[in-house]
Each structure stands twice: as C-alpha cells, then as structure tokens.
Amino acid sequence: MNICVFLSAADLDDRYTVPAREFAGLLGKAGHCLVWGGSDTGLMKVVADGVQEAGGRLVGVSVDFLAAKARAGADEMVFAKDLAERKALMLARSDAVVIMVGGTGTLDEATEILELKKHGKHTKPVVLLNAAGFYDGLKEQFWRMEAEGFLPLPLTDLVFFAEDGVSALAYLEESAGIR
Q1: 3: CB partners within 8 A, 6+ apart
Q2: pTM metric for this prediction
C-alpha cells in the first residue's frame, strides 16, 4: 500500500520523533511505501529513515523551491511546480493518507484532503495521528463542527483519530482489506 504522510520538516523533540519513528518502522516492516514531501530534514527525515531502514520504499514529492532539501536516497523523487500540485500528486500516488504533527503547511494539507473527501473527490482512508495530544484541540473542533451541522456526513467517515502508530496502521490495513 502507498501511504501518503503529511508532516513537518522541522526538527522536533522526542515527544514527536519517537512516535513518528515507531510508525515509520511499522510502515516499512509491513512492506508499505511512504509517499511524503521528499524532504531530508526534520521529522520528514525521521520518517523516511525509519521506513527505509525497515525495508519500505520511499516516493518523495517535493517542490522546485525546496529541491536543495530533497532526499538523495529516495527510491523515486518527483518535483512539482508548486504546493498545490504537490498535494495533488501526493494524493494521486497514494492509497491512504496519514496526517502527523506539523505547522500551517500540514494543516493546509489536512484540511484540503478532508474537504476533497467530504465532497467525494476521493474515498481513501485518512488518519490523523495525534502524537502527544498535538491535535486534541483540532479534534475537539471537528467534533463541534459535526455536532453543529457543519459536516454533511459523520466525522468518522472523514477521518480516523489514532493515538499511536499501531492503531493508525491497523486502521489503514483494515480499510484496505489487508487485515
């Protein structure tokens, strides 16, 4: 399975890198392919290293203006002209999506992926990996959106909230009929 992971390229502390490394190891060990932003820095590097070390494949989708930060050792590297094209390529090349911790770029990616799913533009499983409670506030906001009628379908049809990598991967594999 090709699993798209949206996440930060920032250097972060252990409360975020340890769960990311755990998930990456599980993904690679299970023989899955990581489709990610292609960066060889920060949390993106941690995940790419973990997947590759555990035997998984790496497909990077970078953008021209970040080419200097692209991972040299990826199995495949694609360059998009801008961030919008990058998101579209990552979604097109994946069977499932995981959203890990990140900043405004990751939040933009997450909301676009969910908006596309809400409108039936894709049916891929989406997991929000809530490492160290990072997305607790967003999770609460999503539940409020559902409760107050802002979502045309149940939140559970849009996204699965996982507290760890084991439950995230189990959900994805179950959704794909692998488990």
Answers
A1: 27, 32, 33, 34, 35, 94, 95, 96, 97, 98, 172
A2: 0.95
